[in-house]
Specification:
Order of helices and strands: EEEEHEEHHEHEEHEHH
Distance between the termini: 41 Å
Oligomer: single chain
Low-confidence stretches: 1-10
Mean pLDDT: 93
Length: 240
């Protein structure tokens, strides 16, 4: 496995929170924890955090792989398969506490993508956040009781997602059936698949190579823009 060194951006502050190392961008009084895909804390995840920061939020990215990156599907699968989910949940909870206590955030949301989307739903039940956005990821029953989530949730899936049991249309349907609370919605996008929010094909050289390897449709910028509009509206209304 390749050891990942955070890019020397002067904007991100690296902090240690309990057993977690995290990247922080301080912004407004409302905060969002941003959870990585199975690749790790790469430039794609940091770009998502920067986008939220530009919307006025303080953002925090816990580095759940402790500096490691998956550079291909095999490595990423190995890293995700070996992740200690209970320990990761504690690290996410510690980040939420840090934002509320040390940075005096008035409210904290969570957003995650792929593996992070599943972890975001775990955090919605267990980490003390006020709102959750999950992109194309559903945790197993051993990690989270979806029916016990009481906070607002906005979940996003592509109807061409091919990850059976994790983020395919059937998984999205089961999530929708489990979430029955107020302001809990599962949204589906036509013509897009898994990882449709990634505006770069990393770690592949282009979207065609990604599609050939993983079967994910190429970038649909309209779907990305619509999803971000929905995320902004959701967090603006649920984080105070």
């Amino acid at each position: 496995l390749i050891r990942f060194t955070m890019s020397p951006s002067k904007d991100f502050e690296t902090v240690t929170i309990g057993d977690a190392r995290a990247l922080i961008l301080q912004g407004g009084p409302r905060a969002v924890v941003v959870l990585q895909e199975w690749w790790g804390v790469n430039d794609v995840v940091k770009a998502h955090a920067v986008r939220l920061h530009e919307l006025g939020y303080t953002v925090c990215i816990p580095d759940l792989y402790k500096g490691k990156l998956g550079v291909d599907v095999e490595e990423a699968h190995h890293l995700m398969s070996n992740l200690d989910w209970p320990a990761a949940t504690i690290e996410i909870t510690d980040c939420v506490s840090y934002l509320k206590i040390s940075l005096e955030a008035t409210s904290v949301g969570v957003i995650g993508f792929c593996m992070g989307g599943a972890l975001a739903l775990v955090a919605a039940q267990k980490a003390g956040v006020e709102a959750c956005v999950s992109f194309y990821g559903v945790p197993g029953a051993d990690a989270c009781d979806l029916s016990a989530i009481k906070i607002p949730v906005q979940a996003h899936f592509g109807d061409k997602d091919n990850l059976a049991g994790f983020s395919d249309p059937e998984a999205a349907k089961k999530l929708s059936e489990a979430l029955s609370g107020e302001n809990q919605n599962v949204l589906t996008y036509e013509g897009v698949g898994h990882a449709f929010m990634n505006t770069t094909p990393d770690p592949y050289p282009d979207f065609e190579a990604r599609e050939k390897t993983q079967g994910f449709p190429v970038l649909d910028e309209k779907a990305v823009a619509l999803a971000w509009d929905r995320v902004k509206t959701f967090f603006d209304s649920t984080l105070t």
